[in-house]
């Protein structure tokens, strides 16, 4: 039976916790290891479900994966890779994350074919993979849809082609990088995503022997090479996890030191945190976030690709905005359907109304369509306890924050989803003095 959490709210979160490597980088670096037959070593790897899923997927391809949880050290030895011959296990992994699509390039280079199981990830929009497929097909791959996934073949190898992304998609940028590094010729990728996790992936690929340069105008040049070697790398910190705990500090009137949090990759979050009235102090070992007392301020906010305010911070921060004085407007421009979680917050006493229109000035891709992608939040609203069901990863963490900020006892069901991106969150809750326990 799926685990539930009983949370007695109303007390500030105070204390110290640590964050390790970023979910949205570690899994990609694991895939990059497939590009060489040498052993690659990744450090600062968190114990989260997405790492388990990608490890299992690698093992199914004959790769040796050795994880020391305590140390956070992951050793990946591809040796001789092969297509999986365990359909039951492949079926189990289908629908568990979005990473399998990134296996395409490395497998096509290695084996001339790949089987990509159906993708999972959070249900926060349609999340098509048309940009990925365009790149793969332009480079010479052909696909056949099969039960449980798609089969790709590239009998004549992969050849570089110019790529222009219609939108700076993180996944499609990574797809292009992982495919172009060993393709024949030079790839010019324009309108690329430039998230810090992508820079870290480029750093890994460069250590492996790739030749990649990034211009300031979202253009990335990738010169294909014949072979790559293993890497040793320490993952950048999880800025989404850090921002989530920081939002929890704000919503609960708390004071949290997050060891490992990195200022450089959180600039836009820190600016917003300060505008809302939260305080932070950047230290050598991490960042301290706290609610200084008094009223929080409402703000207009728009999510965007990097260097904008990232969409994955939106859900946790919205809970803090329910406690701010006045009307906040949040315009979600990355995913068309990322406000479903606000319904439960409304049930807990928050005043949130969602709109189809692009509120806050800028027009986005979703403006002329029927997606409720703008939210108006009127605060401050005292939150009361409720029984809620986790809708997705960040939505789940938001419910946790709301329950911690609310008076009374809340029950949160479906908390297993939270393990996908938050390492040891139960332990961290205890470190911060939360009254929360898992129940059957
Ligand atoms: C595992 C991982 O790293 N997940 C992150 C990654 O997701 P992911 O890589 O899936 O997100 P993308 O940047 O690709 O998606 C951004 C937008 O582009 C659209 N799109 C994308 C690809 C495509 O082929 N066609 C298309 O239309 C999506 O539907 C979405 O509206 O970046 C997102 C944006 O920072 C984050 O929220 C996710 O946490
Ligand atoms: C949307 C997210 O992840 P994924 O792409 O893995 O669903 C997230 O981390 O918030």
TrEMBL record:
Subcellular location: Cytoplasm
Active site (UniProt): 122
Gene3D superfamilies found in the cross-reference section: Enolpyruvate transferase domain
A Pfam family annotated for this UniProt entry: EPSP_synthase
Keyword Cell division: yes
UniProt GO MF annotations: UDP-N-acetylglucosamine 1-carboxyvinyltransferase activity
Segments forming domain Enolpyruvate transferase: 9-429
Enzyme Commission code: 2.5.1.7
Any Gene Ontology CC annotation: cytoplasm
Pathway the protein acts in: Cell wall biogenesis; peptidoglycan biosynthesis
Secretion signal span: none
Catalytic activity: phosphoenolpyruvate + UDP-N-acetyl-alpha-D-glucosamine = UDP-N-acetyl-3-O-(1-carboxyvinyl)-alpha-D-glucosamine + phosphate
Keywords noted in UniProt: Cell cycle, Cell division, Cell shape, Cell wall biogenesis/degradation, Cytoplasm, Peptidoglycan synthesis, Pyruvate, Transferase
GO process annotations (BP): cell division; cell wall organization; peptidoglycan biosynthetic process; regulation of cell shape; UDP-N-acetylgalactosamine biosynthetic process
Presence of the UniProt keyword Calcium in the record: no
UniProt main location, coarse: cytoplasm
HAMAP family referenced in this protein's UniProt entry, alphabetically: MurA
Classification via InterPro entries: Enolpyruvate_Tfrase_dom (IPR001986), Enolpyruvate_Tfrase_sf (IPR036968), MurA_subfamily (IPR050068), RNA3'P_cycl/enolpyr_Trfase_a/b (IPR013792), UDP_GlcNAc_COvinyl_MurA (IPR005750)
Record protein name field: UDP-N-acetylglucosamine 1-carboxyvinyltransferase
